[in-house]
Amino acid sequence: MLHAARVRVPASTSNLGAGFDCIGLALDRHLTATFRPAPGDALVVEREGTLRVLAGRPSTDDLFVVAFLGALSDAGVRDVGGTLTLDSEIPVARGLGSSAVAVVGGSALAAAVRGVAIDPSEVLARAAVAEGHLDNAAPALLGGLVAVAQGADGPVTFALPLAPGLAFVFVAPGVELPTPKARAALPTTVTHAEATRALGRVAALVRALETGDPALLAVGLSDTLHVPYRLPLIPGGAAVVDAGRRAGAYGVTVSGAGSGLLAITSPERAESVAAAMAATFAIEAGPDGVVSFVARPDRDGTVVVALA
Fold first, then answer.
1. Which of 160, 178, 211 is the last residue of a domain?
2. Which string of b and e fits 119-149 if b means at least 16 CB within 10 Å?
3. If residue 182 lies in a helix (H) or strand (E), which one and from where to where?
4. Is 51 strand, coil or helix?
5. Residue 53 has pLDDT above 90, yes or no
6. Are 171 and 98 members of one domain?
7. What is the pLDDT of residues 205-219, one digit of tens each?
8. 79 pLDDT higher than 90
9. Among 136, 160, 184, where does a domain finish?
């Protein structure tokens, strides 16, 4: 028997410059998913917030629904009748892990409606199959700053320390950048020398995020593995990066695969950085659909929320 349940899943920004495919941070923009069972085997899906743009999408194409029903099927539940309401604050296809959030949320809600605890290893295993990498899914599930390393037996996730005095600014143009397109722009190989330089930047990034050191953040947020290939796909991207730095950001990078950009700065300068970047996107890419906000880290990750 299935129960009514609700889960909340945070957005995540991944890569953070040099941490390509291995570092992600949960942010305080959320997807809230509610399931209320009803007699029969018909599942009605309602989409609110940023997901209204997906209204009418078949359930077979909805990553949340696929993960939800797949996890229930694996647990022996085949007939799922009721209403599934998805309400999101997370921009779609802008670099805040919306697809990973869907897979994590669907898997977590499947546990919640069965009345069992969320199994992190099970959720991450499903996300690894669906996403191919866990730098978005792991922070969305676990919260905070998370690293993913590939071990002999598969991916290993672990928390990293994060300085309290950092502000995170997210700004995106009104155009999507699908992850497959962003990945297709990457080179298939890099030189040994470039890989070595990239490792040094990752070390700087981890230390900078722990200490809040502005100079180290500038080093860690610089990247040559993915940003130079993805930034040209974002209309006005280079100009917006420059605008953020001039306004006081320690560094600006592509959030996930884009099209959003992430700046890290001091709390005192965060609003000015956000305004400068948003204004530049409005000029360079057009004002329609520009998204801009100052975000805080979400340290809770995916949680089961009591129903009203």
1. 160
2. ebebbbebbbebbebbbbbbbbbbbbbbbbe
3. helix 179-184
4. helix
5. no
6. no
7. 999 999 999 999 999
8. no
9. 160
